[in-house]
Amino acid sequence: MTEELHGKKVAILATDGVERVELEEPRGALHGAGAETELVSLHTGQINARQMDIDPAGTFPVDKQVADAAVRDYDALLLPGGTMNPDQLRTDPDAVRFAREFMEAGKPVATICHGPWTLAEAGTLSGRRLTSWPSIRTDLRNAGAEVVDEEVVVDDRLISSRGPHDLPAFCNAVVREFTGALQPA
C-alpha cells in the first residue's frame, strides 16, 4: 500500500443505479493510495448498485446527502457511471451544483462511463477534452466538449474513461493525477 494520497478526502457522487465496479474499483485504488472517501448521494441510507445496468449488485452505505455536502470539505471528486445513476444526478439541483463547484474550483474530477452527464448538465464541459460511454458522446459534444474514443483522457484536472473495460487504466490515472494535482506547489 502506498500513501501518496494520505490525508486527502475524495467525494464519490453517486445514487441508485450506480455501476458497482465503477464505484468499487476506483474507491479501492484511492484507499490503496491512502485517501479517505465519502459516498455523497441524493438521499441518506443506502444506494442500490447494478451490474451492467441490469442486474442488482448489492448496496453501498451513504456517508452524506449532497444537499448537506460542501466542496471545500473535499480534495477531489469521483463520478462513477451506470446509466441510471448519472441520469438521476443530472436532474437534481444539489448534485449539479456540487459537480459544478468542483470544476469551478479547479479541483481534480474523475469520471467514467455515463458519469460525464452530470458535468454536461452543470455546464462545465465547453472546451474540455474527454471520453465516455459511446451512447452519451453526442450529448457531451452538444455541451461543447471535444469527445474522443480513448481508454483514458486527462485534460488538466479532468480524468475520464469509457467504461468498465478501462478500469485498470482509469484507476491508475486517477491515483496518479489526483496525487499530482494535490501535491503542494
From TrEMBL:
- Stretches assigned to the DJ-1/PfpI domain: 8-176
Q: Recite the UniProt keywords alphabetically.
A: Glutamine amidotransferase
Write the lineage as a comma-separated list: Bacteria, Bacillati, Actinomycetota, Actinomycetes, Kitasatosporales
Name the UniProt record assigns to this protein: Type 1 glutamine amidotransferase
CDD domains for the chain: GATase1_PfpI_like
| Highest taxon in the source lineage | Bacteria
Q: Check the UniProt entry and state the signal peptide residues, or none.
A: none
Q: Which family does it belong to?
A: Belongs to the peptidase C56 family.
